[in-house]
């Protein structure tokens, strides 16, 4: 990763928060992302964390729907909601 580049780290709580913000079930979110419901469940229980394209897609979705978070250097994210 380039020096100073910021990235979102998607953990269980952030993924659940984004899904809640979207008003989607795990199944609906999985369909939107092109993955399995079990994958969303595994992310939300902390069994696995999304990597690569999945993490980038979550970041893109979050930015498009106004799920406010601050990506910090070093890979941490603080989130919140507008309004």
Report on the architecture of this protein.
The protein has 83 residues and is of the alpha+beta class. It has one domain (12-81): lambda repressor-like DNA-binding domains (434 Repressor (Amino-terminal Domain), Orthogonal Bundle), CATH 1.10.260. Helices cover 48% and strands 12% of the residues. The protein has a two-stranded antiparallel sheet. Strand 1 and strand 2 (77-81) form a beta hairpin. The longest helix is centred in the C-terminal third of the chain and has 13 residues, at 52-64. The termini are far apart. The relative contact order is 0.22. Mean pLDDT is 83; it is low at 73-79.
Tell me the CATH architecture: Orthogonal Bundle
Mean pLDDT: 83
The value of Rg in angstroms is 12 Å
- Outline: globular
Could you please say which CATH topology applies here?
434 Repressor (Amino-terminal Domain)
| SSE arrangement, N to C | HHHHEE
CATH superfamily: lambda repressor-like DNA-binding domains
Order of strands across the biggest sheet?
1-2
Query: How many strands?
Result: 2
Number of helices: 4
Number of domains: 1
- Biggest β-sheet strands, sense, barrel: 2 strands, antiparallel
Portion in beta strands: 5-15%
Write the layout of secondary structure elements.
Blueprint: H1 12-22, H2 26-33, H3 37-44, H4 52-64, E1 67-71, E2 77-81
Antiparallel strand pairs: 1-2
Helix pairs in contact: 1-3, 2-3
Offer a quick outline of the entry.
The protein contains four helices and two strands. The protein is of the alpha+beta class. It has one domain: lambda repressor-like DNA-binding domains (434 Repressor (Amino-terminal Domain), Orthogonal Bundle).
